[in-house]
Amino acid sequence: MSDQMDTPAPMIHLGNDDIVELLSMEDTMEALRIGFSQLASRDAAHVPRMELWSPAAQQDAYYCLGSMAGTTKHFGVTAIRIKSDVLHWPEGQRQEKYAVQPGTFCGFILLFSSTTGEPLALINDGILQRMRVGGSAGIAAGHLANPGPNTLGILGSGNMARTHAEAIALASDLATIRVYSPTQANRETFAKEIQAVTGVEVSPVATPEAAVEGADIVVTATNSMVPTLQPEWIDEGALVLFVTRREVSPELIARADRVMQLGEYSIGPDANVPGMEFPQSGAGGFVAGNDDERARLPWKHRAETGQFPSLIDMLAGTVDGRTRPEETIMFINIGAQGVQFAAVGAKAHEIARQRAVGAAMPQERFLQDIRD
C-alpha cells in the first residue's frame, strides 16, 4: 500500500494495493450504475477504445498503445486510461501480453477535475480494470437473467472470472456455481476462494460442457483467440456473458434469441476513418510496419464485429431487455470503457480522500506556465 498522506495533497497516486483496500465490488457496481445511467441520459460521454501499433523487437510480437477516455457530470471528473503492451499470439490460440518482461504490465488511469482541469490522481489500472469488467457483468446479469435461484457456469479461473462470479452473486440469486479451467489445480483453487467470498457452493468440473450445460447464467472469461463455447451446450433461457469478442462465433450468435452488448466499444469500420485498420477485428487503430512486420498481426483471426443493441440503450428506454423466460440472450461485455474508468476511478479517489490513503504527488510536476 502507498504511504498515507500527512496532509491533503492536490494530486495522489493510488496503487493496486490501495485499490484492493479502498474499493469493494458493491462500491464498483454503485459507481458503474451511475455512469451507465448518465450515459443513457447524455450526462456522460466517452471516447471509444483506440489502438496504435508498432513492430516489437521480438519477431513474433507487436507493440500496442491502447487508450480510452470518459467524463461524467455526476462525479465531476474526466478520465483517460492508457495501456502499453507487447502482444503476441502463441500458435494463434490465445493472446499474451507484457511490458518490459513477461509478468509485468503497464496501464494507468489519469483522473482530472472537470471543474478546474487540475489532475487529481494517477491510478494503476490492474485491480480497477478487473473490478469494472466484473461489475459490469453483474449489472447486466441483474437486468437480463431470469429470476433465481440460478446456476452459474464459468469457463476460466483467472482474475476476470473471479470478479464476474463475485459481481453476479451480488446481482443475481445464485444456488450454485460450476467452474471449468484446463488446469485442475486452478479450478479447484478458484472454487474454494469464490465459495468463501460469495457464500455460494462452487464445484470444479472436468469439462467445459459440464460447466455450461443446464446453467441459467454462463460466463466465458478467458484469453482465448477462438470461441470457447458450443451452441448445443447452452440451455433455452440462458444468459451468456462474454468478456471479449474473440470468444464469440457466428454459430453462437445464431443460437441466440437476442444479442446485446454493453455499449460502444471502438470506432467501427463503417466510419471509414482514413488510415484506420482492424488487426484483431475488434478495436480500430493505426498500424506502423512493412508488409513482413504487419504479417505478425492476427489479421486472419476475424473476431465477431457486429453492432448490437446495448445495455445503455435499454437504460435509455429505446430497446427492450429480456421479454420472456425462455429467451436465450448473448451479452458481449464490451463498450463504454471510458465512462467506467471515470466513474470507478472517481469513486476510488473519493474514498481515498476520506481515508487519507494514497501517495502525495506534487501537482506542479503536471502544470506549467507555458501555453500548450
Structure notes:
- With 372 residues, this protein is an alpha/beta fold.
- The chain has 2 domains: 11-128 and 338-366, 2-Layer Sandwich (ornithine cyclodeaminase, domain 1), CATH 3.30.1780; 130-265 and 303-336, 3-Layer(aba) Sandwich (Rossmann fold).
- Helix content is 30%, strand content 26%.
- The protein is built from 10 helices and 16 strands.
- The protein has helices at residues 16-22, 25-40, 126-144, 159-171, 184-198, 208-212, 250-255, 291-294, 311-316, 337-355; strands at 11-14, 44-55, 61-72, 77-88, 96-98, 106-113, 119-124, 150-155, 174-180, 201-204, 217-220, 239-242, 258-261, 285-287, 329-332, 359-361.
- The strands form 2 sheets. Strands 1, 2, 3, 4, 5, 6, 7, 14 and 16 form a 9-stranded mixed sheet that branches. A 7-stranded parallel sheet has the order 10-9-8-11-12-15-13.
- The protein is globular, with a radius of gyration of 21 Å.
- The two termini are 35 Å apart.
